[in-house]
Amino acid sequence: MPQPDFNDFSLLYPTAETRRAHFAREDVPRIDDFTLEELGLPEILPLKNSRLSEFMTTDPVVISYRQQVFADLLAHEEIGKTLGKLIPVLFDIMELRRLEDDNGDTSDYLSSMTEIELYISSIDILYKGLCGKEYDSVAFRRLSSYIAELVESDYYAELNQRLAELTNRVREIKSVTIGVNLDSQLRPRDAGVLSINPEYFRSGDTLHKILRLNFKEDQYTCIANLTPFGKKQSENQKTALSLAFNSAINEVYRQSLRSWKKIVQTYVLENTDFLLGLLPEFELLVKGTNLMRALQIKGNKITIPEIRPVSERVFRATAIYNPEVALKIDDPIVTNDLIFDEKATIYVLTGPNRGGKSVITCACGLTQAMAQLGLFVPAEKAVLSPVDGIFTHFPTGADDTIDKGRLGEECARLGEILDEITENSLVLLDESLSSTGSFEASYIAAEVLSGLSRVGCHCIFATHLHELAAQIDNINARVSAEGGAPIDTLVAGIEARGRRSFQIIRAKPDGKSYARDIAEKYGLTYESIVKKIKQD
């Protein structure tokens, strides 16, 4: 039966050309696994058999196509359940093929039958779960149409019928009669299958004869037990015995099953390969949908971002939040607006420790990464352009002390980032240069910011260096004359007595007010200290 050409079908790429471009890495941004780990994405979107970086794209057409697919998955919960049932079956097929390759036996007809059974099972799962429903996405409309055409064809019906006939014959096997030739010393010389029987053999002990009320010996009655299978045998012995029996049964059924190998090689293998090729896509779609649904269940908003061309360099997010944090806390998460515009392509973000600087910095990167996977993003509204790379420079975990070795390492990493970025990149710096004193750190940071400004990329520099934030006007004056992009400041808010608000506002920092609030919280103001002294 002629089959539709589905060699180029994909749930993630709308055309053969976009798929080819992706695997040729023409639309793949520089977002590596280390960066995604620093942002925390693999923790909330874990893949067992693929890497998230493999699916990142800069193509707005591809992103839009995926958004429609994810929209259908969220609208039709049955799709996710169907793919969840399908994935283990496809892994069974992969494992079966692996075992066949390891054994090097291309004439294993029983394995061929098992693969056909698994293939039919996978098609039936898709047919029951997907077909007969209305979808908005081109991908699921096309896939369900293909599966329906396949299942409703005469060829598929014949495949099921012939498989049922042959499997019934094989499943009827209950025992085999083995003949063993002995030498003059009664040692086994060779052995073979004498017959394949539709009944189990029976033990010849007296109890069984009484229970059957039959004392007659026949061909199914055992007159002497061999060592029971599975007892006092090593794993190698068990495997060898199993292989011997399978080989013998394969030999007996070779002629009647020979046609199956041809069917597997032509029809079933092609269609099974089609499904196996989609397995990484199935996993991303299921896990991505689970993430988005988990955010919704906890009362958090997600939105389909409007995707603009890369050249427009847009990032406007309303009520953005960090999805990793949102999934961990029970209280409603604090949201913030984050906009890169003509007045600020780079932000210096200051504020108290544990005031939300790192959280919003990661939220920016996670929103960008999720958008370029085709997912909905953690915000109320978002308009984004894809970036050609996300680059992170986060704390390494060492103490914030003056350490020449660590400072050198930090500077080297910053230098590598500056070598890679373009104006279409996103750079996220969190407490960079914290390994040295504030004077040295502020000087180096000002130089780095000046360089980033000349590149013109989007950047958030979350820092404890309030001195750096105070220099922004001077840095802008320096770079604007040379065509540099504008730098602005964000502030992590703090309420009375040092209480963190986790609100990020676009304002000039006031380091003294933070210090005053923190000092008041811990009773370290001059007034508090004097009061304690008088009480003592």
Account of the 3D structure:
With 536 residues, the protein is an alpha/beta fold. It has two domains: 16-170 and 260-285; 299-535, P-loop containing nucleotide triphosphate hydrolases (Rossmann fold). Helices cover 52% and strands 13% of the residues. It is built from 20 helices and twelve strands. The strands form three sheets. It has a six-stranded mixed sheet, sandwiched between helices. A four-stranded mixed sheet has the order 3-7-4-5. It has a two-stranded antiparallel ribbon with strand order 1-2. A hairpin with a 5-residue loop joins strand 1 and strand 2 (188-197). Helix 5 (77-103) packs antiparallel against helix 6 and helix 16 runs parallel beside helix 18. The protein is elongated, with a radius of gyration of 33 Å.
In total, how many beta strands? 12
Report helical residue fraction: 40-55%
First-last Cα distance: 96 Å
- Rg from alpha-carbon coordinates: 33 Å
pLDDT < 50 runs, ≥5 residues: 398-404
Structural class, judged by helices and strands? Answer: alpha/beta
The dominant shape is: elongated
In total, the number of domains comes to 2
CATH names the topology of the largest domain as: Rossmann fold
Q: If helices are DSSP runs of H or I spanning 4 or more residues, what is the number of helices?
A: 20
Largest sheet: 6 strands, mixed
| Strand composition percent | 5-15%
How would you state the average pLDDT, rounded?
A: 83
CATH class of the largest domain: Alpha Beta
CATH superfamily placement of the largest domain:
P-loop containing nucleotide triphosphate hydrolases
**Second-tier CATH architecture of the largest domain:** 3-Layer(aba) Sandwich
Widest β-sheet, arrangement of strands:
8-9-10-6-11-12
